[in-house]
Amino acid sequence: MPQILQYDRLSLSLTNIYVDDTMKSSRSNGHRFIISCFFFIAFLCILASVNEIRFNSFLKFGKCALSSSNSSPDNSTSNFLPLNSTSNSSNYSNSSSLPEDEIRILIGILTLPDHYHKRHFLRLIYGTQSTENAKVDVKFVFCNLTKEDQKVLVALEIMRYDDVIILNCQENMNKGKTYTYFSSLPEIFNSTTDDAGKPSPSPPYHYVMKADDDSYFRLDNLVKSLRPLPREDLYYGYVIPCPSMDPFVNYMSGMGYLVSWDIAEWIRESEIPLKHLEGPEDKVFGEWLRDGRRGKNRYNAKWSMYNFPEPPTRCTHELWPDTIAVHLLKTQEKWIQTLNYFNVTKNLKPSKLYHIP
Hints:
seven-stranded mixed beta sheet
């Protein structure tokens, strides 16, 4: 009996030793597991950081390659431009933060100080349009005010809309107003900071346009047609004479023609325009570029730009979806017919406040 008891005690001792060793071994393995996990997590973090650096470097390399490709002198766009804008490659002011591929466009609508109702109407037309990745500023341009009521009413317009440019000239159509407009733009807009003290983009606009107040521009189509075009030495519009499709034959119609910013700076600095100010303003403008050998990049937007279809002439075209501009909207009826065709009220939201059948 004593021997059996002694044997049990011995077995119990051995069991305790085994359990104790097993627990120690488990603790040791647990510590090793925790340490291994820690080093594994640290390794993953280091690996992720290295990959992020490589990925960012890859992105930068890709951007550099794309930039080099776009700026290459062998780019076919800079050497040859299509003669019309019927291909698919073709807001009032949408000046929010924009991506790097933004296009900045100034549209100057030449009008008269007393045309208050026309300006308010055009604000509706352009204020309800939107563009993608573009800043399009529409300004109303006229010469010095001459009446007391103008000084009050135009001042109120400026306070409310901030979309008026008053040139230092006497009101005219074909005696230098267009020259004053283009030559004044660099002085007006070339600045290192904006009104809020923030750095200004350079150039302030890639393109500047002169437009008539009886022209209707579809801004998004205009932007799309400009996106693949050069941003230097560009002359864009509806080429005259009407049957021609060659933008180098003559000049662009006064319904609305556009040039790159560098041409506006050239007009301000060159003596060529000063020697020839009078005459049909669109024809005179084309002669400036011809004599100065400017506008080597030209784009004829026919037949996306055209005169209203009635009465039919060699310059008219039926309204169609690829339209950029319609000209000679001399009456309210023509405006309404045009706006209805393009369904400009399609985004009107339903409301209990109104009922429009």
